[in-house]
Fold this protein.
Amino acid sequence: MKPTPSPSDPLRLDAPVRIKGRGAASNPEGRFEAIGKTREDDGWHRDDESTPRPGTIVTVERARSIVSRNDSPDIHFEQSVNPYRGCEHGCVYCYARPSHGYLNLSAGIDFETKLFAKTNAAELLRIELGKRGYACSPINLGANTDPYQPIERRWRITRSVLEVLAECGHPCTIITKSALIERDLDLLVPMAQARLVHAFVSVTSLDNRLSSALEPRASAPHRRLEAVAALNAAGVPCGVLVAPIIPMVTDRWIEQILERAAAAGARHAGYTILRLPHELKDLFRDWLALNVPERAGHVMSLIRQMRGGKDNDARFGSRMRGEGEFAGLVRQRFRLACRRHGIDAQRDLGLDTSRFRPPRAASPQGELF
């Protein structure tokens, strides 16, 4: 019986390959797809064939709802808005990749090339905030996919959502890996003055070459830290997330990231340990085999040590921080570095919910009075 090739076997016809500007190295079927596809050698394969470079395709989505709610004890917000499905940043480690399976698309290349723009996001948000009995609590932008990914330059959906929140005096938090957030300082500054916004910029390492392989279309690490400084200088509180921490790949940068962040004015910080749900574990193994083959086995061994012997542990309480000796060491290093640089590792951001006023109902004559 012929053995089944491993995900990173170079003899496979669909073996993973580096694709410039993309994080994933393959495009496996989503876990909900009913039809599987395999590649067969027709005898005409040429070694000099170049690797295809898939372009980004954006599809307009008329969403039916826009505010997602959660009661997870691991997450510091109850409500979130995601203006886009999929993310062009292409971060190979993104825990949201498997969500593309619900669209019968792959968590691999599809997730970063076949994107969906929720063009009615602001309209739906206005309706949601105007509902009778709506209880105001901070809304997070960037819980699943990055609200400032490159396509936001054209579509400006995140900005339209911020305009509604600013109009209603509704507090929000923002998580991004993009310096594009600086574009919206004209909205964020007055919101910050009213204690309505706190931003976080995720920084995984300070190595540009590593970053270009891990998160190819996100802003470079130094540019993200410049954005942290620019926001804080303008009066918009901006912290950092050292996330995700990947053992033997990015963990060496923990202390330096927090030092640079403190110098940029950050006063809040958080971290998470790499998570590998569903299809993501195989995509990440492919990335390790291509980029750090000499460490691939050691990296996965440490991940399993932090995940109770498995590739992933979805239990509340441990899924974000892990468990075991290595996870404990990371926790200690992070806390000591925060203390050394005067950074608050807690997440009480002091946002004000008392300013919220429901949006005015549209009226043909309303603007006359």
Observations:
- The CA atoms of residues 169 and 305 lie 45 Å apart.
- The first helix runs from residue 109 to 113.
- The longest strand covers residues 238-245.
- The chain has eleven helices and ten strands.
